[in-house]
Amino acid sequence: MVPEPLTAPRLHRPGPGTVPALTALWTAVTRAGGAVGFVPDSTDEEIAAAAREVVDEVRAGRQELLTVGEPLAGVVFLRRGAGPRIAHRADVLRLMVHPDRQGEGLGRVLLDAAVARGRELGLDLLLLSARGGTGLPAFYTRLGWTEVGVFPAALDLGPDDRRDEHWFQLRLG
Ligand SMILES: CC(C)(COP(=O)(O)OP(=O)(O)OC[C@H]1O[C@@H](n2cnc3c(N)ncnc32)[C@H](O)[C@@H]1OP(=O)(O)O)[C@@H](O)C(=O)NCCC(=O)NCCS
């Protein structure tokens, strides 16, 4: 049997270490300017509360978590549409790679894993949004996603900093 590469993402079942590890990763990404729901001066407690909340979502089966690395180097979440009209699709959420590990290909590997998981679940469509004024729209375009629209000034990053929200989709067909 060919050994699994060390960087292969895994579907993560939350344990006692999940919240602290996710909090540490999310905080490092945020402090480095990452665009995952926060701004660099968001408080530790805000980020920790969000990590607890999202891990509860995973425990409840409403979201899936794919992780890479031990210690945790990157994550991505998949949230399937709830209800019959949108059960054929899922949102790809909170793709993040630790600042010390960015540029090694882990972002691509995690996104590919989310796509593979979407296919495994029999989904037709994946959706995600990205913060304007960053390299993220170019990142998703580069990885084959289609930009389908922009909500102008939809993200409030603080006084005088409203960013566009760029919406992307990928048909799994
Ligand atoms: C966005 C992010 C996940 C990318 O992960 P990464 O591991 O650094 O990216 P990779 O090394 O896998 O790069 C994959 C490709 O995208 C390109 N790329 C990476 N970051 C990019 C950026 N900001 N802008 C444009 N292209 C980018 C790389 O050059 C590479 O292309 P190539 O293979 O053709 O050379 C990572 O930078 C990150 O965690 N950022 C902070 C969190 C964040 O903002 N997440 C977005 C949520 S929507």
From TrEMBL:
Q: Which InterPro entries match?
A: Acyl_CoA_acyltransferase (IPR016181), Bact_Acetyltransf (IPR050832), GNAT_dom (IPR000182)
**PROSITE patterns for the chain:** GNAT
Q: GO terms for molecular function, please?
A: acyltransferase activity, transferring groups other than amino-acyl groups
Q: Which UniProt keywords apply?
A: Acyltransferase, Transferase
Residues covered by the N-acetyltransferase domain: 17-173
Q: Which domain of life does the UniProt lineage start with?
A: Bacteria
Q: Does the keyword Ubl conjugation apply?
A: no
User: Signal peptide position in this chain?
Assistant: none
Keyword hit for Metal-binding: no
Full protein name: N-acetyltransferase
Species per Swiss-Prot/TrEMBL record: Pseudonocardia hydrocarbonoxydans
